[in-house]
Amino acid sequence: MNSENLHNDSDLLRRYFAGEMDELEKNQFEKRAADDPFLSDAMDGFEMSPDVPAESEFRMRPPRKHWRPLLTAGVILCVLAGFALILNQLLPERVKFDDESNQTELKTEIEVIPVSIDTMKEAGNSEQIQVSEIVAYANNFRASEKTEEEKADTIVILDENDSEEELNFALEEEPFGILQNQGAPITFLFDLMVADYREIGRERDEISYTRVEQTGTPAEFENQNTLKTAELIETVVEIPYVDYLRKSMEFFADYAFKKALARYEIILEQYPDDVNALFYGGLCYFNLSQYSKALEQFEKVSDHPLIIFEEESLWYAVKALIKLGKKDEASKLLDTIILKGGFYGPDAIQLKRTLK
């Protein structure tokens, strides 16, 4: 910058800070200072030391080095790198980055439903046997069958403000086989009563099935170097019966009747007289509008040596018979239920009146 420019700029600075510029000239000067680091520095210096000649500001101060943007960018990069490191440590092992393979694949088990089941038409909600109805019977049985001694052994302390859900969870934690139904040990899965075959005993206690898994990288970690096509892997595995049954009952409790039925059928292929698969499979068939098949399974349950679901199977056999238009047979079966005087007795009396 030559001496003439220095003199002109110092005069402009003096006039600017003395308020001698009109609005247009002031705006033009500020715009020029925004684009000229030397002039901007001079304005800073003049504002702090108005008694120092403005020319000295131009001579003494070195050109401004634009290091601030670089420093800011560096700080941001460091923060991001630290955040990424922490996030990678917190992520589950299966989705962490892998130095060798870039990303770790996920495996998700897929429930395979046979076409014969998948094509079944689910009955309307009002026509279905509700899971809550099955749970109500199980809770009634659980309350009536526990002896005073068992009640003393099973202490559940609940606050008066505890919810019904918390109560159900507390009861769910009872040991397997704590209750007996006609001498057969039972337990509860998702508030649904089942025969405890671990206590009953069989030659083997596993279920063999073909596990189908989908592998691939999660969408949020996919990039141009990642294969985006999923692969299905089939593996024949053996797991404990109770574990396989637990998942089956979870599907049933969630009203996923097709998935539940597919699993009950696998159980029956290996244990044809499994009372759990017969009874809950029959309920699934009923809710999928397969009333003849449902009736067939309910009849097997009512004749089963393990008298666990006898009363329920008779009651739901009546409902299947009515759906099939066999009201006379249904009426005779209702008489049997009424004479037993059990949980379904009052409902059986009411239903019999409507069949006349």
Question: Could you walk me through the main structural features you see in this protein, from its secondary elements to its overall organization?
Answer:
The protein is an alpha+beta fold and 356 residues long. It folds into two domains: 3-60, no CATH class; 115-325, Alpha Horseshoe (Serine Threonine Protein Phosphatase 5, Tetratricopeptide repeat), CATH 1.25.40. Helix content is 56%, strand content 12%. It has 17 helices and eight strands. It has a three-stranded antiparallel beta sheet with strand order 3-7-8. Strands 4-5-6 form a three-stranded antiparallel beta sheet. The longest helix is centred in the first third of the chain and has 23 residues, at 68-90. The radius of gyration is 39 Å and the shape is elongated. Mean pLDDT is 77; it is low at 54-67, 92-103, 151-160 and 166-179.
Helix-strand pattern: HHHHHEEEHHHHEEEHEEHHHHHHH
Strand content: 5-15%
Main sheet characteristics: 3 strands, antiparallel
Rounded average pLDDT: 77
Amino- and carboxy-terminal Cα gap: 113 Å
For the largest beta sheet, what order do the strands appear in spatially? 3-7-8
The assigned structural class equals alpha+beta
| Overall CATH class of the largest domain | Mainly Alpha
CATH architecture verdict of the largest domain = Alpha Horseshoe
Would you give the CATH topology of the largest domain? Serine Threonine Protein Phosphatase 5, Tetratricopeptide repeat
Provide the number of structural domains.
2
General form: elongated
Oligomer: single chain
How many distinct beta strands? 8
Structural Rg: 39 Å
